[in-house]
Amino acid sequence: MRKRAGTLVLVTMVIGGCRGDNVTGLTPNAAATTRTSATIRAAAATHVSGSCETTAAAPPVVTFPILREEDTGICRLSHLGRTAFHAFRVVNLATGTQTAEITLTAANGDLLRTTDVSMRTAFLPTSFLFTGTTTIVSGTGRFSNATGALQAEGEVDLMTGAASFAYDGRIAYDASDRSN
Predict the structure, then answer these.
(1) DSSP letters along 84-101, please?
(2) Which of 72, 75, 74, 73 is nearest to 51 (CA)?
(3) 46-172: which CATH number, 1.10.10, 2.40.160, 2.60.450, 2.60.40?
(4) In b/e form, how buried is each residue of 80-103, taking b as 16+ CB within 10 angstroms?
(5) What is the pLDDT of residues 119-150, one digit of tens each?
(6) What is the pTM of this model?
(7) What tens digit of pLDDT does each residue of 70-79 get?
(8) Running DSSP on this structure, what letter comes out for residue 16?
């Protein structure tokens, strides 16, 4: 009987701890209004879209089936304006998949750092089509705590290595973040 009473007390404490009552010392209104900056940014997510044109900064290095390449270019993206594009790519030529670390530099100098995972979707006579997801991982200035993801869809010229693609997605950031 004593063991059962102890179990009942423990279960009551656990259930009570899971309730939304004033167990943290915050008043119910304070608990409702206390949010992290990530929550605030998530609520302020903004649609971002635009297009990019890139070229290889130097000849790619190929150790079949892996191709390593550095790309530069210009994007025109909503909420960033005319944006400099810089990427380091690793492409698996056999599977048609790639990963990349991309830095987007907004017109005012603020940076967005992203990672990208893409795959070839079709071969054309002199090019190929691709799709991918670009995930925002960090930034500077107003983007110092940015999060979000952009979908990429485009085409790469097999002769020149030039690419053109469109971005479409969402970014969450606090526009007052300007100290970094």
Answers:
(1) EEEEEEEEETTTTEEEEE
(2) 75
(3) 2.40.160
(4) beebbbbbebebeeeeeebebebb
(5) 999 999 999 999 999 999 999 999 999 999 99
(6) 0.74
(7) 999 999 999 8
(8) H
